[in-house]
Amino acid sequence: MKLYIKYMVSLRCKALVKEELKKLGLHFVIVELGMIEMLEDITSEQRAALKANLHASGLELMNDKRSILIERIKVVIVEMIHYSDELPKVNYSDYISEKLGFDYTYLSNIFSEVKGITIQQFIIHHKIERVKELLLYDELNLTEISYRLHYSSVAHLSSQFKKVTGLTPTYFKQLKKKRSQNLEDL
Length: 186
Fold this sequence. Notes:
The chain is of the alpha+beta class. Among the domains are: 1-63, Alpha-Beta Plaits; 122-178, Orthogonal Bundle (Arc Repressor Mutant, subunit A). It is built from nine helices and four strands; from the N terminus they run E-H-E-E-H-E-H-H-H-H-H-H-H. Helix 3 packs across helix 5 (104-115) and helix 6 crosses helix 9 (169-185). It is 65% helix and 9% strand. The chain has a four-stranded antiparallel sheet, with helices on both faces. The radius of gyration is 19 Å and the shape is globular. The chain starts with a strand and ends with a helix.
């Protein structure tokens, strides 16, 4: 039996879900971002208890098939951008379609209808968030970040970054240094 959980987007969320399952004496095979695979079916009482416990932690057990599909799309994108060392070599549309087993046009239409943005816009926002993380870690230069996130050039990355944040990547990085200097002055 599979259960789907909304807002489960980090390793900390996975640990929290595992702990809640253990508290309720529920046995699971896999806990992934946005999904639990159970060994056995759970009773309606167990489901209600799990739902309440997850809700108290800011997570949501989902029942609606469309919501589940939207959440699965989001999880595939988050895993692809934030938790894999290298982005797929194929088009994002092919990758998402293959991972979820649905036609991309179908996925795209449902996603846009429910979220109010396209899958591509969602991917761009997450790529920019990943760029911010990598800039703040200060381990890679902009060329390396551009290559890692499959931008055609540093100029393309910079242009998209500015469009989304209103700042250039260089200025964003300088802000971090200024904040650090200001904290040292306290």
